[in-house]
Amino acid sequence: MIRHLCAALAVCAMPMAAVAETMDITVTWLRHVEPERPVLSNLDPIPEDRGRAGAALGLEDNQTTGRFLGQTYRLDIVEVPKDTDPTAAATAALAVSPFLILDATAESLLKIADLPQAQSAVLFNSSASDVALRAGSCRANLFHTLPSDAMKADALMQFARLKRWEDLAMIQGAAPRDTVWAEALRASATKFGMKLGDGKLWEFDADMRRNAAQEVPLFTQDLPDHDLLLVADVANDFARYIAYNTWEPRPIAGSEGLIPTAWSPVVEQWGAAQLHSRFTDLAARDMTARDYAAWAAMRAIGEAVTRTKSTDPATLRAYMLSDEFELAGFKGRPQSFRSWNGQMRQPIPLVTRSAVVAQAPLPGYLHQRTELDTLGIDAPEATCTAFN
Amino acid sequence: MARRFKSLAALLTSVAVATAPQLAMSDEIWVTNEKDDTISVIDIETMEVVRTIDVGERPRGITFSKDYSVLYVCASDSDTVQVIDPETGRVLHELPSGEDPEQFVLAPDDRHLYIANEDDAITTVVDTQTRTVVAQIDVGIEPEGMAISPDGKIAITTSETTNMAHWIDTETQELFANTLVDSRPRHAEFIKDGTELWVSSEIGGTITIFDVATQAEKGKIDFEVTGVHPDRVQPVGFEMTAGDTHALVALGPSNHVAVVNAETYKVEDYILVGRRVWHMDFNADRTLAFTTNGVSGDVTVIDVAKRKALRSIKVGRFPWGAAFRPTGS
Predict the structure, then answer these.
(1) Measured between CB atoms, which of A2, A61, A277 is closest to B161?
(2) Which run of H or of E encompasses A30?
(3) Does A8 contact B119 at a Cβ distance shorter than 8 Å?
(4) What is the pLDDT of residues A185-227, one digit of tens each?
């Protein structure tokens, strides 16, 4: 035994030299700054490093593993101002590395994915929850680590169904993102056999911080009978002022109250508290869903490199889409990618600001492949053909 | 009324036991309650909790010295390993453990503790006699599982996010090998006189078996519980039955313990236990196993030969680790 140990030690005197050949992997995190809507409340500023800090944590995680395997990882940061076309910056980034984690709108994502230089690249959408990107507008080179609106809506509907809150009503904001989210909620309600009529459009521009108690009861007085009130307001401009001010005493969900999300600091189980504490050590703030998506993209690359011992984008792409791939995403189940649209399967926590209420998929929603596929677009209903 | 009287009598008995622990005659199982900052002491004879001992914050790893004269407990959130007198339940002193100690293993020399520092990606080696840190070894992210070979020459740390077993040469306190396993490795054990190393992977849902001499993978165990989705079958803690013939493997949120044949690596049985079964220990002759069930807050007693759960014993919140203590020690 001793002699064997010494032999092994001679080869592996330094842990970083455990594997003879070294691999260098550069990943670019590219943000095309989105114009953010001004909102009434000042309580939830958008962190300047949202998404980027998640990628940075993923880098640390990959590097720690990598130093035992002779892998080195580098993260390049590219920020494109909001009025600038992102394709030039993306082309430059693709000349350095085929691995891009993107933080941009659906429109910018597609522009980048359609670049000739991007065709053999591996891109990750860590920012846009649009269902269309996983359906008709999908791209074979674009993976999605952020859950789609459909996944989040299905998580909420599973919960409402389980609670037998079958009559729903909805208030939706006037922003385009609110319409998209409201449509996802409506489609999901239909999928799970719930009753959800037309949403009532919120058009007020008064300062609700001062008069929600006067306005909201009146506004909600003529809503159809409901057990649960959905509020579709992605920026949380007015949703936060609805709770407790409704005509009928009803719980609210969607963009306020009970929220389906990829990640929240209130998730504590499955080692999530450790991920969160590593994140707060790094970024001095809470981890958001977009940070989580960027982290998951970075880790997916690291995991694929480690398991395939390759840096070839085609090899990594094929591995990530295979049944072999699994990422421990701190949500209690292995996370993998759907082979029909590149969406990362993942549990969706349903959270309030201080606790996890439930985590979808909920008990009783069964699936022949994995219960995670009860959330979002499943193979039989997929309209994405790019992955075939 | 009669019932109340009886429970009062039971209470009086337990008070008597608590104030005069030196009278305890039976073997015991000690269980750390992660969310109560306590240890529940189960009397194996009566299968009741006879003592509850206050310890530091978030107690997890638990082990006795070889002669059972002192108890070591990882008080994770207190960032220390507490050394406790099992007779009085008093903390004798604390050991420097590095930050967030989760799990540890006591070397065969009965002196050195190898501690996984979950938040720091470090394994800390502490001399329990001089109460000093002997070495700190950089390992992967979220180290957890700890094992040491019977001859004391190799220590193992598994890292949950790096997905590796790190092999430490205890003479130089340096890594000499790093082997990949499936996602989220949780627990490691040397078995068969230290010729095999077993590592469980919670998210990967497997146990990987290594040949210790070559550090090469020589087998993998998969689990399949009828009616439970594979994603929820998550192997965590495991212990070997007498003679290392079988392993009992705690399968986390599937609420089952698997019985694995250690020769064929085949699963022979699944036993339904409490919710989110985590770790376990045996009685003296290994005829009974006691599993900690985190979510249901209890301990399941398993008849090892019959492969059946006999009963459950309520303990504190989120029981994590278990350790056996013999009579009169």
Answers:
(1) A61
(2) strand A23-32
(3) no
(4) 999 999 999 989 888 999 877 777 778 888 899 899 999 999 9
Alpha-carbon gap, residue B245 to A158, rounded angstroms:
45
The pLDDT, as a whole number, for residue B9 is 45
* Rounded distance between C-alpha atoms, residue A134 and residue A150, angstroms: 10
Q: Do A328 and B183 touch (CB under 8 A)?
A: yes
B203–chain A nearest CA distance, Å: 6
Instruction: For chain B, say whether A10 makes contact (Cβ under 8 Å).
Output: no
Q: Give the one of B142, B151, B203 whose C-beta lies nearest to A326's C-beta.
A: B203
Mean pLDDT lowest among A285-294, B63-72, B108-117, B230-239 = B230-239
Evaluated on CA atoms A343, A346, A348, A354, the torsion sign reads: negative
Determine the Cα–Cα distance for residues A283 and A263; give it in Å rounded to an integer.
Answer: 16
* CB contact B141 to A (< 8 Å): yes
Hey, what domains does chain A have and what are their CATH numbers? 16-147+264-381 (3.40.50.2300), 151-260 (3.40.50.2300)
| Chain-chain contact of A334 with B162 (C-beta, under 8 angstroms) | no
Beta strands in B241-282 (DSSP E): 246-250, 256-261, 267-272, 277-282
Nearest CA in chain B to A57: B141
Can you tell me the mean pLDDT for A294-311?
96
Task: For chain A, say whether B192 makes contact (Cβ under 8 Å).
Answer: no
**Domains of chain B in sequence order:** 26-325 (2.130.10.10)
User: With an 8 Å Cβ cutoff, is B228 touching chain A?
Assistant: no
Tell me how far the alpha carbon of residue A282 is from its chain's centroid: 20
Nearest to B97 by CA among B57, B68, B40, B66: B57
